[in-house]
Amino acid sequence: MIELFVGGHLFHPAALEWSHKKCSNGCCYCFANINNEERFSSDIKSPIRQLYKGKTVTHTDKLLNMNHTICISNRTDPFSRENYRDTLALATHLVTKKNSIFIQTKTGPGIQKFCDIYGDRKDVVFYITMTTINPEISKSIEPSAPLPDERLAAAKQLYDRGYMVVIALNPLVESWMSKNDISLLTNKLKDIGILHICVEMLDMSPARLKKLSAKKRSMLGDIILSDAQSNKNTKNRMYVREVVDILIDMGMIVAKKGMPFKTPFFDDVAVKLNVTYPVIQTFINHCMNTMKSPSLIKYAEYESVIAQGDIFNIVDNGNNIRSYLLRAGFPSWLENKDKVHSHKDLLRITWNDKRVRTSIQRHCLFRVAQRGGKNLLDDNGNIQLYYDGKPYLGGKGVVEL
Question: Which of these, 38, 98, 139, 303, has the minimum number of CB atoms within 10 Å of its CB?
Fold first, then answer.
């Protein structure tokens, strides 16, 4: 089924996603495999039927009809050997619609055929994962995925055909991709003309670690597991920050969750796509471009920047929108599940509730403003945030004024 991309809320430009149920790449760090090892083959008929549905019933139907971008695919590789035929079959139907496509892949069979199906349409962004440039490491951690040189060759072909290509260092782990390898890869990408890079660290929560099979533990290695199990994943976190600085210094256009820098990354992506969902980075850019330092920021300003597009005018009493909270913070969902009828409702909750992982309060550039130990509120009862342009990386995320 094509679904609401609840996991990408305010982090990803696609409001919708479609993923296969299985993947043959065998990546040891794959969150989808860790969460559910016993997955089954996709039902390709369901998303095709959705595209031709006569009635607009669900919130997903509304977003499809509003031509929102579809992410293919967040949980599996659409061009793995097991999946590419279904991906091509779906493409023959998707190309008749106005929805743009954001493809997340390690490349593989069928990717050029997909481009042939789309012909002159270039409202497709390819996000290609590169976790290493070492073929032996790749064989160890991603045993059935294309090798690094094959991915680079495919990236060049796609770029030369006129598509936007994003390279994803996701997850970035030092023992898989050293700083020297980062420089080598970056220079190769610049030679091709690719400048956009997305960086993320290994996400190995305690819950995922418990589900990790002995085989996957062995593939990851003791050093990586040890750091993943540490309180803040400190070593890897610092390495990711260092690499972001290196990439920016080398002239790359970088995106990373929580990054305390301006970047045109998502603006560039939005130019290529038809209808996109807003991201937190837009507000970061806004603050760095317009805010005096220090400043108190009210919710109204956040909403005026983020709540752009017709999606924020929808009122959905069916309450499918609340599913964003269920994925991003269960306690908040429990308290607010009957109060979310629009994306503006959702935006207000994520502004005020730090428990939700998409809350702006979690960003290192902002702290909750307090006086006398109590939160400063605006006239509508929303918290106010303190901003001085400096990243704040410790403590409780509050400032006493």
Answer: 38
Cα–Cα distance, 284 to 192 (Å, whole number): 29
List the domain range (segments joined by +) for residue 299.
280-400
Give the model's pLDDT for residue 24.
Answer: 87
Angle at 36 between CA 35 and CA 41, to 5 degrees: 140
| Sign of the four-CA dihedral 253, 259, 260, 262 | positive
Q: What is the reported pLDDT for 362?
A: 93
Quote the DSSP letter at residue 364: T
Whether residue 349 sits in one domain with residue 200: no
Residue 161 neighbours by CB under 8 Å, 6+ apart: 115
Q: What is the CATH number of the domain that holds 185?
A: 3.20.20.70
- Sequence-ordered alpha helix ranges (H) in 291-342: 299-306, 323-328, 330-336
Residue 214 · residue 28 · CB < 8 Å: no
Q: Residue 40: what pLDDT?
A: 53
Please tell me the total count of domains within the chain: 2
Under a CB-based contact definition with an 8 Å cutoff, are residues 20 and 73 in contact?
A: yes
* 55 and 167 housed in the same domain: yes
Query: Which phi and psi angles does 330 have, rounded to 5°?
Result: -60, -45
Of residues 190, 173, 198, 193, the one with CA closest to residue 250: 190
- Mean pLDDT of each 10-residue bin along the chain, 401 residues long: 93 95 87 55 84 90 96 93 94 98 98 97 98 96 96 98 97 95 98 98 74 79 71 78 97 96 98 97 97 95 96 84 81 86 94 92 96 96 97 86 93
pLDDT of residue 141: 94
Which amino acid makes up residue 349? Answer: I
Does residue 158 sit in the same domain as residue 189?
yes
